[in-house]
Design brief:
Blueprint: E1 3-6, E2 9-12, E3 16-17, H1 30-42, E4 47-49, H2 58-70, E5 76-81, H3 88-102, E6 107-112, H4 123-135, E7 139-145, H5 149-157, E8 164-170, H6 182-188, E9 192-196, H7 227-247, H8 251-259, E10 265-267, H9 274-281, H10 290-300
Parallel strand pairs: 3-4, 4-5, 5-6, 6-7, 7-8, 8-9, 9-10
Antiparallel strand pairs: 1-2
Helix pairs in contact: 1-2, 1-9, 3-4, 7-8, 7-10
């Protein structure tokens, strides 16, 4: 496993995402997840990302079991505060609750999960609370998630003693919206991107097609799995398969490795079993060639992914 900077941390160049530890995913099983974390740890993965919103704290509790088993220093732990808790006092309480569920004294990376879209909580008190948590030693570093470049710029103006080290956003081969604004901003300001949904919720695994779509709550109604989009994605899967064969890898590993072409981007795929954890870890430690990146880029420029009817 290769390691890369995340602020002051040295983390595996592929992480372990924990969104799947909640009721939205039909395949979730705590023991299987723990086995997946064990396999990931065995293969050198040390970055685990969770959130209080995943299963109403259940995901953090499962991660706590892994921390207890392997020891606190075995992992860099990232978690997130949910939008309903972004008011100053609520955020401080939410952090305490996450610390308790995780069974730690300090969270390594604490992130604002989303800018509040409903109650329109201003960013200033949110970021002031985040800074206080760092000053008080409850969190080591702070980050954001699903923030546009303008949101990051505003959030950073409210910080006087620290800065955000990361922005966790959706990014994969077929969902590339962050390339116009977020990636240039983060690159310029040395902010790491944690890429969630790096294999497009499974669309890049080859397991699904226009006649076989996922049925769980998290993906069942996703436009990404429409008949049109699955036809378009099938063209990409053929290329990923050919590239994978050259490297003796899988399509998933190629899709994850494509994200690693930029050193400040760290994919955080989920895994529900040891096989998936092993496959995800195998995306690290090698690189696509320049020719292969151009080959993939050319096909991507031709794909037409639709989000609306």
């Amino acid at each position: 496993m290769n390691y890369t900077p995340l602020g002051e941390f040295k983390v595996s160049e592929v992480g372990f995402g924990c969104w799947q530890i909640c009721e939205d995913w039909a395949t979730t099983n705590d023991e299987n997840i723990l086995n997946a974390i064990r396999k990931a740890k065995e293969l050198g993965v040390n970055l685990i990302d969770t959130a209080e919103a995943y299963g109403d704290g259940h995901s953090e509790s499962v991660v706590a079991r892994a921390i207890k088993e392997f020891g606190r220093d075995s992992f860099t732990i990232a978690t997130k505060v949910a939008p309903p808790h972004t008011r100053y006092d609520d955020l401080l309480k939410a952090c305490d609750a996450s610390i308790k569920r995780l069974g730690v004294k300090q969270i390594d990376l604490y992130q604002v999960h989303w800018p509040d879209p409903w109650e329109q909580v201003p960013l200033k008190p949110t970021m002031k609370a985040m800074e206080k948590l760092q000053t008080d030693g409850k969190v080591k570093a702070i980050g954001v998630s699903n923030f546009a470049a303008r949101d990051m710029e505003e959030a950073r103006t409210y910080l006087s003693k620290t800065d955000i080290i990361s922005n966790q956003v959706r990014y994969n081969l077929v969902q590339r919206e962050i390339e116009d604004g977020i990636i240039p901003y983060c690159k310029k300001n040395k902010i790491t991107i944690l890429a969630w949904s790096p294999i497009a919720q499974g669309a890049l695994t080859g397991r699904y097609n226009s006649e076989n779509r996922p049925k769980d709550a998290a993906r069942g109604n996703s436009r990404l799995f429409s008949e049109h989009n699955m036809r378009e994605i099938s063209r990409l899967l053929k290329l990923l398969s050919a590239v994978a064969d050259r490297h003796h890898k899988t399509m998933v590993q190629v899709a994850l490795n494509w994200l690693m072409k930029d050193p400040f981007i760290i994919p955080i795929p989920g895994a529900t079993n040891t096989k998936q954890a092993e496959e995800n870890a195998g995306a690290a430690g090698w690189r696509l060639t320049g020719g292969e990146l151009k080959e993939i880029e050319q096909l991507l420029s031709e794909l037409k992914i639709e989000y609306y009817p």
